[in-house]
Amino acid sequence: MAKLPEAQVPGLYHRRVGEILLSAVSDGFLNGSNAALQNISGDDAARMLTEAFRPTPRRGSVNTFLLRGGGRTALIDTGCGPSMQASAGQLFGNLAAAGVDPAGIDTILLTHLHPDHSNGLTGADGQALFPNAELCMHRAELAYWDDPASAARAAETGQGVPYFAAAQAQLAPYRQRLRLFEGGEVFPGVTATPLPGHTPGHSGYAVASGGETLLIWGDIVHVPEIQVPRPEVGMQFDVEPEQAIATRRRIFDMVATDRLLVAGMHLHFPGFAHLARRGDGYVLVPEAWNVAL
Protein backbone atom coordinates (compact mmCIF):
# COMPACT_ATOMS: atom_id res chain seq x y z
CA MET A 1 0.00 0.00 0.00
CA ALA A 2 1.32 3.40 -0.92
CA LYS A 3 2.24 5.71 1.93
CA LEU A 4 -0.66 7.94 2.89
CA PRO A 5 -0.16 11.71 2.60
CA GLU A 6 0.70 13.54 5.82
CA ALA A 7 0.11 17.08 4.57
CA GLN A 8 -2.12 18.96 2.17
CA VAL A 9 -1.00 19.90 -1.30
CA PRO A 10 0.46 23.44 -1.54
CA GLY A 11 -2.02 26.24 -0.92
CA LEU A 12 -2.02 27.64 -4.46
CA TYR A 13 -4.76 28.50 -6.93
CA HIS A 14 -4.13 30.19 -10.28
CA ARG A 15 -6.58 32.32 -12.22
CA ARG A 16 -6.08 34.48 -15.27
CA VAL A 17 -7.42 38.01 -15.49
CA GLY A 18 -6.82 38.76 -19.14
CA GLU A 19 -3.04 38.68 -19.64
CA ILE A 20 -2.29 38.75 -15.91
CA LEU A 21 -1.79 35.48 -14.05
CA LEU A 22 -3.21 35.96 -10.56
CA SER A 23 -2.32 33.31 -7.97
CA ALA A 24 -3.96 32.97 -4.58
CA VAL A 25 -1.18 31.93 -2.20
CA SER A 26 -2.35 30.74 1.19
CA ASP A 27 -0.56 31.84 4.33
CA GLY A 28 -2.66 29.40 6.36
CA PHE A 29 -5.28 30.37 8.90
CA LEU A 30 -5.72 32.06 12.28
CA ASN A 31 -7.99 31.17 15.18
CA GLY A 32 -9.47 34.14 17.00
CA SER A 33 -11.92 35.11 19.68
CA ASN A 34 -15.53 35.94 18.87
CA ALA A 35 -15.11 38.82 21.30
CA ALA A 36 -13.28 40.71 18.56
CA LEU A 37 -16.59 41.00 16.68
CA GLN A 38 -18.42 44.26 17.39
CA ASN A 39 -22.15 45.10 17.24
CA ILE A 40 -23.18 41.49 17.73
CA SER A 41 -23.65 39.39 20.86
CA GLY A 42 -21.38 36.45 21.53
CA ASP A 43 -24.38 34.11 21.41
CA ASP A 44 -25.46 35.43 18.01
CA ALA A 45 -21.94 35.14 16.61
CA ALA A 46 -21.59 31.56 17.84
CA ARG A 47 -25.02 30.64 16.47
CA MET A 48 -24.28 32.08 13.01
CA LEU A 49 -20.94 30.28 12.81
CA THR A 50 -22.45 26.99 13.95
CA GLU A 51 -25.31 27.29 11.46
CA ALA A 52 -22.72 27.84 8.71
CA PHE A 53 -20.79 24.70 9.79
CA ARG A 54 -17.84 26.82 10.87
CA PRO A 55 -15.82 26.46 14.08
CA THR A 56 -16.55 28.74 16.98
CA PRO A 57 -14.62 30.64 18.18
CA ARG A 58 -13.94 31.88 14.68
CA ARG A 59 -11.28 30.65 12.27
CA GLY A 60 -10.21 32.75 9.29
CA SER A 61 -8.13 32.16 6.18
CA VAL A 62 -5.13 34.37 5.52
CA ASN A 63 -4.65 34.84 1.78
CA THR A 64 -2.09 36.69 -0.29
CA PHE A 65 -2.18 37.24 -4.04
CA LEU A 66 0.65 37.00 -6.55
CA LEU A 67 0.42 38.85 -9.88
CA ARG A 68 2.57 38.02 -12.88
CA GLY A 69 2.44 39.80 -16.19
CA GLY A 70 4.57 41.80 -18.61
CA GLY A 71 7.76 40.34 -17.17
CA ARG A 72 7.01 41.70 -13.70
CA THR A 73 5.87 40.13 -10.42
CA ALA A 74 3.94 41.70 -7.55
CA LEU A 75 2.70 40.29 -4.27
CA ILE A 76 -0.32 41.73 -2.48
CA ASP A 77 0.28 41.36 1.28
CA THR A 78 2.83 39.10 2.94
CA GLY A 79 0.87 37.19 5.56
CA CYS A 80 1.65 36.51 9.19
CA GLY A 81 5.32 35.58 9.09
CA PRO A 82 6.66 33.20 11.74
CA SER A 83 5.56 35.11 14.83
CA MET A 84 1.78 34.60 15.08
CA GLN A 85 0.21 31.11 15.08
CA ALA A 86 1.68 27.83 13.87
CA SER A 87 -1.27 27.45 11.49
CA ALA A 88 -0.16 30.58 9.62
CA GLY A 89 3.11 31.78 8.13
CA GLN A 90 2.87 29.37 5.20
CA LEU A 91 3.49 31.96 2.46
CA PHE A 92 7.12 31.18 1.70
CA GLY A 93 6.64 27.43 1.48
CA ASN A 94 3.77 27.96 -0.93
CA LEU A 95 5.75 30.46 -3.00
CA ALA A 96 8.52 27.86 -3.28
CA ALA A 97 5.96 25.28 -4.42
CA ALA A 98 4.89 27.74 -7.10
CA GLY A 99 8.51 28.11 -8.24
CA VAL A 100 8.66 31.75 -7.12
CA ASP A 101 11.81 33.12 -5.50
CA PRO A 102 11.05 36.06 -3.15
CA ALA A 103 14.09 37.79 -4.67
CA GLY A 104 12.28 37.83 -8.00
CA ILE A 105 9.31 39.80 -6.67
CA ASP A 106 9.76 43.44 -7.66
CA THR A 107 6.70 45.00 -5.97
CA ILE A 108 4.88 44.46 -2.68
CA LEU A 109 1.44 46.06 -2.54
CA LEU A 110 0.07 46.28 1.00
CA THR A 111 -3.61 46.53 1.77
CA HIS A 112 -2.60 47.81 5.23
CA LEU A 113 -0.03 47.31 7.98
CA HIS A 114 -1.78 44.96 10.38
CA PRO A 115 0.56 42.08 11.26
CA ASP A 116 -1.39 39.33 9.49
CA HIS A 117 -0.75 41.29 6.28
CA SER A 118 2.77 42.62 6.81
CA ASN A 119 4.65 40.36 9.24
CA GLY A 120 6.05 38.46 6.26
CA LEU A 121 8.03 41.52 5.16
CA THR A 122 10.93 40.76 7.51
CA GLY A 123 12.63 37.80 9.15
CA ALA A 124 13.46 37.27 12.82
CA ASP A 125 16.73 39.13 12.22
CA GLY A 126 14.87 42.21 10.96
CA GLN A 127 16.14 41.79 7.41
CA ALA A 128 13.93 42.22 4.35
CA LEU A 129 12.60 38.91 3.06
CA PHE A 130 11.92 40.50 -0.34
CA PRO A 131 15.35 41.99 -1.04
CA ASN A 132 14.54 43.51 -4.43
CA ALA A 133 10.94 44.64 -3.91
CA GLU A 134 9.61 48.16 -3.79
CA LEU A 135 7.08 48.48 -0.96
CA CYS A 136 3.89 50.34 -1.88
CA MET A 137 1.02 51.52 0.33
CA HIS A 138 -1.44 54.37 0.69
CA ARG A 139 0.09 57.59 1.96
CA ALA A 140 -2.42 57.73 4.84
CA GLU A 141 -1.40 54.26 5.99
CA LEU A 142 2.22 55.19 6.51
CA ALA A 143 1.20 58.47 8.17
CA TYR A 144 -0.98 56.60 10.67
CA TRP A 145 1.66 54.08 11.74
CA ASP A 146 4.37 56.74 11.90
CA ASP A 147 2.26 59.04 14.10
CA PRO A 148 3.02 58.96 17.86
CA ALA A 149 -0.42 60.45 18.53
CA SER A 150 -2.05 57.49 16.79
CA ALA A 151 -0.05 55.12 18.98
CA ALA A 152 -1.15 57.06 22.06
CA ARG A 153 -4.83 56.83 21.05
CA ALA A 154 -4.43 53.09 20.49
CA ALA A 155 -2.95 52.81 23.99
CA GLU A 156 -5.99 54.57 25.43
CA THR A 157 -8.47 52.31 23.66
CA GLY A 158 -6.46 49.09 24.01
CA GLN A 159 -6.58 48.64 20.25
CA GLY A 160 -3.52 46.89 18.88
CA VAL A 161 -0.80 48.76 20.80
CA PRO A 162 1.94 46.21 19.92
CA TYR A 163 1.04 46.67 16.26
CA PHE A 164 2.86 50.00 16.13
CA ALA A 165 6.22 48.55 17.16
CA ALA A 166 5.69 45.66 14.74
CA ALA A 167 4.87 48.06 11.89
CA GLN A 168 8.04 50.04 12.52
CA ALA A 169 10.15 46.89 12.53
CA GLN A 170 8.59 45.67 9.29
CA LEU A 171 9.03 49.02 7.57
CA ALA A 172 12.63 49.58 8.65
CA PRO A 173 14.52 47.71 5.89
CA TYR A 174 12.19 49.09 3.20
CA ARG A 175 12.32 52.79 4.10
CA GLN A 176 14.62 53.57 1.18
CA ARG A 177 12.34 51.85 -1.31
CA LEU A 178 8.89 53.00 -0.29
CA ARG A 179 6.38 54.25 -2.84
CA LEU A 180 3.29 55.96 -1.49
CA PHE A 181 0.07 56.48 -3.40
CA GLU A 182 -3.36 57.99 -2.95
CA GLY A 183 -4.97 56.07 -5.81
CA GLY A 184 -4.44 55.40 -9.49
CA GLU A 185 -2.40 52.71 -11.24
CA VAL A 186 0.23 51.23 -8.92
CA PHE A 187 1.36 48.27 -11.05
CA PRO A 188 0.63 47.49 -14.71
CA GLY A 189 -3.07 46.64 -14.85
CA VAL A 190 -3.58 47.24 -11.11
CA THR A 191 -5.37 50.30 -9.70
CA ALA A 192 -5.42 51.16 -6.00
CA THR A 193 -8.87 51.62 -4.48
CA PRO A 194 -8.91 53.45 -1.12
CA LEU A 195 -11.14 51.60 1.38
CA PRO A 196 -10.65 53.57 4.62
CA GLY A 197 -12.01 52.68 8.02
CA HIS A 198 -10.39 49.42 9.00
CA THR A 199 -7.22 51.51 8.94
CA PRO A 200 -6.87 55.04 7.53
CA GLY A 201 -5.00 53.85 4.43
CA HIS A 202 -6.65 50.47 3.99
CA SER A 203 -6.70 49.82 0.24
CA GLY A 204 -8.06 47.36 -2.27
CA TYR A 205 -6.65 46.65 -5.71
CA ALA A 206 -8.60 46.40 -8.96
CA VAL A 207 -6.90 44.07 -11.43
CA ALA A 208 -7.98 44.69 -15.02
CA SER A 209 -6.79 43.13 -18.27
CA GLY A 210 -8.36 41.86 -21.47
CA GLY A 211 -11.81 43.16 -20.60
CA GLU A 212 -11.87 41.39 -17.22
CA THR A 213 -11.81 43.05 -13.79
CA LEU A 214 -11.32 41.64 -10.31
CA LEU A 215 -11.38 43.63 -7.05
CA ILE A 216 -9.09 42.42 -4.28
CA TRP A 217 -10.90 44.02 -1.36
CA GLY A 218 -8.48 43.40 1.50
CA ASP A 219 -10.20 43.29 4.89
CA ILE A 220 -13.66 44.48 3.87
CA VAL A 221 -14.76 41.18 5.44
CA HIS A 222 -13.03 39.18 8.18
CA VAL A 223 -15.77 36.66 9.02
CA PRO A 224 -17.87 36.14 5.88
CA GLU A 225 -20.55 34.02 7.55
CA ILE A 226 -21.38 36.96 9.82
CA GLN A 227 -20.37 40.19 8.10
CA VAL A 228 -21.91 39.46 4.69
CA PRO A 229 -25.46 39.05 6.02
CA ARG A 230 -24.82 41.64 8.76
CA PRO A 231 -22.47 44.32 7.39
CA GLU A 232 -22.94 46.41 10.53
CA VAL A 233 -20.75 43.92 12.40
CA GLY A 234 -17.27 45.31 12.75
CA MET A 235 -13.97 44.20 14.25
CA GLN A 236 -12.15 45.32 17.36
CA PHE A 237 -9.22 46.21 15.11
CA ASP A 238 -11.15 48.78 13.05
CA VAL A 239 -9.41 52.12 13.62
CA GLU A 240 -12.50 54.10 12.55
CA PRO A 241 -15.40 51.69 13.18
CA GLU A 242 -18.23 53.74 11.68
CA GLN A 243 -16.21 54.52 8.58
CA ALA A 244 -15.32 50.83 8.21
CA ILE A 245 -19.02 49.92 8.26
CA ALA A 246 -19.88 52.66 5.74
CA THR A 247 -17.07 51.51 3.44
CA ARG A 248 -18.22 47.89 3.67
CA ARG A 249 -21.80 48.86 2.80
CA ARG A 250 -20.61 51.00 -0.13
CA ILE A 251 -18.39 48.25 -1.53
CA PHE A 252 -21.10 45.61 -1.09
CA ASP A 253 -23.50 47.76 -3.09
CA MET A 254 -20.94 48.40 -5.84
CA VAL A 255 -19.82 44.76 -6.12
CA ALA A 256 -23.39 43.43 -6.23
CA THR A 257 -24.61 46.10 -8.67
CA ASP A 258 -21.67 45.70 -11.06
CA ARG A 259 -21.51 41.89 -10.64
CA LEU A 260 -17.81 42.19 -9.89
CA LEU A 261 -15.62 39.25 -9.02
CA VAL A 262 -13.86 39.88 -5.73
CA ALA A 263 -11.04 38.29 -3.77
CA GLY A 264 -10.41 38.78 -0.09
CA MET A 265 -7.64 38.19 2.39
CA HIS A 266 -10.02 36.46 4.81
CA LEU A 267 -12.48 34.80 2.45
CA HIS A 268 -12.06 31.05 2.57
CA PHE A 269 -9.19 29.98 0.33
CA PRO A 270 -8.77 30.54 -2.57
CA GLY A 271 -10.90 33.58 -1.80
CA PHE A 272 -12.64 34.33 -5.13
CA ALA A 273 -16.36 35.09 -4.97
CA HIS A 274 -19.33 37.13 -6.14
CA LEU A 275 -21.75 39.02 -3.92
CA ALA A 276 -25.45 38.73 -4.75
CA ARG A 277 -28.45 40.49 -3.26
CA ARG A 278 -30.94 38.38 -1.35
CA GLY A 279 -33.94 40.32 -0.10
CA ASP A 280 -32.63 43.23 1.95
CA GLY A 281 -29.17 41.72 2.32
CA TYR A 282 -26.40 39.88 0.54
CA VAL A 283 -25.06 36.38 0.06
CA LEU A 284 -21.51 35.42 -0.87
CA VAL A 285 -21.26 33.04 -3.84
CA PRO A 286 -17.80 31.43 -4.15
CA GLU A 287 -16.51 31.22 -7.69
CA ALA A 288 -16.49 27.71 -9.11
CA TRP A 289 -13.08 26.03 -9.28
CA ASN A 290 -11.63 26.49 -12.76
CA VAL A 291 -9.29 23.77 -13.99
CA ALA A 292 -8.17 25.54 -17.17
CA LEU A 293 -5.85 28.54 -17.27
TrEMBL record:
Residues 61-266 form the Metallo-beta-lactamase domain. It comes from the Bacteria. CDD domains: OPHC2-like_MBL-fold. Keywords: Hydrolase, Metal-binding, Zinc. GO terms for molecular function: hydrolase activity; metal ion binding. PANTHER family: QUORUM-QUENCHING LACTONASE YTNP-RELATED, QUORUM-QUENCHING LACTONASE YTNP-RELATED-RELATED. Belongs to the metallo-beta-lactamase superfamily. This is MBL fold metallo-hydrolase. It comes from Teichococcus oryzae.
